[in-house]
Amino acid sequence: MRETAYCDALLIKRMFPIRIFLRSWIPVVLVAGTVAGNAMADPEGYLHGYLQGLVDSRFPDLHLTIRPIGSRKVFISARTCLGPSQKHDVERVLAQSQYVESVTWDAIADCEQPAPPTAAGEVKFNALPETELFPPLIADPRQPRFSLSYQHYQTPSDTFNAGAVALGEYFGFTSGILGESGLSQFGIQAGVFALFNLQAPSMDLINADYWIGFPLSYRKGPWAYVLRLYHQSSHLGDEFILGNPGVNRVNVSYEGLEFLTSHEWDRIRVYGGGGYLINSSTDLDPLTAHGGIEYQHPRAVGEFDLIAAMDVRSSEEVDWAGSYSYQVGFEVRGLSRRRARLMLEHFRGRSPNGQFYNEQLRYTGVGLYFAF
Asked: Measured in whole angstroms, how far is the alpha carbon of residue 237 from the centre of its chain?
């Protein structure tokens, strides 16, 4: 009896880990089997849910509704009309899922019909939106972003190789603040723009500009608008001051308002506007003008997009002399919102660097730009 009881106890002890394993994994297997069974039983419903979740997670501000209409074909409706770049981004994400080859947009998304009415007083807010309604200006030397460039500088007093580094980004606070007639958004932009002399023994910091702005943007179809209040302050590098004892530091610091509007076609974007300096630590004339044009050819070479852009700035302070910035190169995008650009760049006009704003400058170089 004792031997039998001992053997039974030993058998139970040996089987205990198996029982624990079965108790732990049988529910998981059952759930997985149920999900797989549902997907096999209703493949169209499963695909519909997956694609809807994909666009909801990537483009929450656009309020898209997706419906499969055939093999690898979908129909998409939107709350308001969208611009070409917005639709291209959605189509790219769906194509990368490998489940969609053709997208059909409803008339509202193409701005052919008015947006559907909403309940009286209803306003849809979305906290911390990811999509920027007014796309960043590609060739603007003072666009907040992450970038690094190698540039050959030519100024009236010197010629040298320079390194330009920018650290900045846009962050949306909320969307929907202007109601349902279009897409609206409020956020913050901030950036630091540093210029280094790569030929100096310690690669001296020449100048650093600190920029912060609060943009209110609005978009409906191919039209986009932004109004922003911003501040910029500029500071010479200590090593530059020590190496140039004759230079006089000027405290260039100001606040201003800028308004820009842009219009998109299938591959071309044109923008323009102006600004006014509200306050300045130096006696600067207040009026400014700003405009440009951009061209994008999706998948021009494999997965690489061809991009070309020109940005033009002018101000009353320099008697409306134009400053021209040009860029051309290729961009690659990941499955997320991240992208990287390798660009050839050229600039001629008045320097964008702090207290050198009245100095003629020409540079040519290559830059690497990142978006998150």
From this structure: 30
